[in-house]
Write a structure and sequence with these properties.
By secondary structure, this protein is of the alpha/beta class. The protein has helices at residues 15-26, 49-61, 67-83, 91-103, 107-126, 147-159, 186-196, 230-238, 249-255, 311-320, 342-345, 349-360, 387-397, 423-434, and strands spanning 3-7, 31-36, 129-130, 164-165, 170-172, 178-180, 201-206, 227-229, 259-263, 272-275, 288-301, 335-341, 364-377, 404-407, 413-419. Strand 14 (404-407) and strand 15 (413-419) form a beta hairpin. The protein starts with a strand and ends with a helix. The structure holds aspartic acid (ASP).
């Protein structure tokens, strides 16, 4: 059995954290492939190595002096090396990066060095082989991850190595230059490596003991989620719950490999399991709650709109032509509501409204801004009666007016729209109804 273990920036922020990571790896022989991020913040006032590297690039690309942030980068790595008592020297690698910054600065290449250098330290500390991600992870012409090229190369390479460190976040572009994923992309690398070696588990080690049922900025010490399906996670992530890069679930999801989110600072906690399917019931009827503010409802009324089969299409087109994604479409007999993100709508609102009036000749169009959407997600909801009643009773008891309701046919979630100013109170009321 093989496990791929990915460690985030805060798990590798200094020598002390590296020691914890090594203990975790050595505690289980099946943890054979390690994907490190770049060193993150040691304290909240600290700067991530990746941010320092972007700063170096910004200065270098304008022909300005990048000495200060570059020195800070070097100092951080040297401190880790010394703290671990390693004989390793990165001076050649530093010189190479400096030289490139001076003569032909490249943004992605510069940023990727955070993971590259950390991978070198990690490999030296663990005695594991170092596999440069630029030799096994490829991007296509459009700059997207190229699975058809990467998986065969990566699988073949991993077969030759019993234990290896593969730095996260980057690979090689079609043009032969280093490319990175978007920020937080080491999560994606971990997932790709897990798939390539057909790992039994992809362990993603971070600084929290898994996913929480609600945002801790709203709910004090929310309960942890033991297990969640990929689909539930998508619903919550879309509404703002975050623990991992969103794209990291796709490589492992289609290969049926579970993800286990774990805490480097509290390795005894079992964390959260993210799985395709599970017979495990969640402890509560709902798995989690997440929400976002600043949506806008456009309420279109027209008698007998249902006798016009092209009505919805025409309305949708008004948004499509302005490149505005539709979030929800709750409907009535003679009203259709379109819920969109305010940020996407505002700039184009006059054009959208003008088109709606022209194409479908409605009796009225109303725009209601300042709507917050709350997704109450749970795979157990469909087998239990009274879930919706409980949500709406809780909101009614808190005297919160519900502006919109949407329940998908999958019965995986119930979306409730409330006014922005009621958002936090609404989340608390729902959470308390199910958990407290
Ligand atoms: N170091 C990169 C970042 O800060 C990638 C990662 O940590 O996953 O975004």
């Amino acid at each position: 059995m093989k496990k791929v273990v990915k460690f985030g920036g805060s798990s590798l922020a200094d020598a002390g954290q590296f020691r914890k990571v090594a203990d975790i790896i050595h505690a289980d022989d099946s943890r054979v492939y390690v994907v490190p991020s770049a060193p993150g913040k040691r304290t909240s006032a600290d700067t991530k190595i990746t941010d320092l590297l972007y700063e170096c690039y910004e200065l270098a690309s304008k022909g300005q002096n990048f000495y200060e942030p570059f020195l800070a980068v070097k100092d951080r790595y040297n401190e880790i090396i010394q703290g671990l008592g390693l004989g390793l020297s990165l001076s050649e690698a530093f010189d190479e990066i400096e030289d490139k910054l001076q003569h032909s600065p490249e943004r992605d290449y510069t940023a990727s060095r955070g993971e590259y250098l950390n991978g070198l330290i990690m490999s030296s500390y663990l005695g594991y082989e170092f596999i440069d991600a630029a030799e096994v992870i490829f991007f296509d012409e459009a700059g997207n991850f190229d699975g058809s090229k990467s998986y065969p190369a990566l699988s073949a390479r991993l077969e030759q190595s019993d234990n290896a460190v593969i730095p996260g976040f980057y690979g090689l572009g079609n043009d032969g230059k280093v490319r990175t994923f978007s920020r937080g992309g080491s999560d994606i690398t971990g997932s790709i490596v897990a798939r390539a070696c057909r790992a039994a588990v992809y362990e993603n080690w971070t600084d929290v003991s898994g996913l929480l049922m609600a945002d801790p900025r709203i709910i004090t010490s929310p309960a942890r989620i033991d297990s969640i399906t990929y689909r539930e996670l998508r619903e919550l992530a879309y509404m703002g719950a975050s623990v991992m890069h969103e794209d990291a679930i796709f490589p492992v999801k289609s290969a049926g490999i579970p993800i286990n989110i774990r805490n480097t600072n509290s390795p005894q906690d079992s964390g959260t399991w993210i799985v395709e399917n599970t017979a495990r019931r969640s402890q509560y009827t709902i798995t989690g709650i997440a929400g976002r503010k600043d949506f806008c409802s456009i309420i279109i009324a027209k008698d007998l709109m249902h006798s016009q089969p092209d009505f919805y299409r025409k309305v949708a087109q008004c948004f499509e032509e302005n490149n505005i994604p539709l979030e929800h479409l709750p409907s009535g007999i003679d009203t259709m509501t379109v819920v969109v993100k305010e940020s996407a709508f505002i700039e184009h609102e006059q054009d959208v409204l003008r088109r709606i009036v022209k194409f479908v000749e409605p009796e009225s169009v109303e725009v209601e801004p300042g709507i917050a959407l709350i997704a109450v997600v749970g795979r157990s909801m469909k087998s239990q009666t009274g879930t919706a009643a409980k949500i709406f009773q809780a909101l009614a008891d808190a005297r919160i007016n519900v502006r919109m309701i949407d329940q998908g046919a999958s019965e995986l979630n119930i979306i409730v729209g409330v006014l922005n100013e009621d958002f936090e109170r609404a989340v608390k009321a729902i959470y308390n109804a199910f958990v407290a």
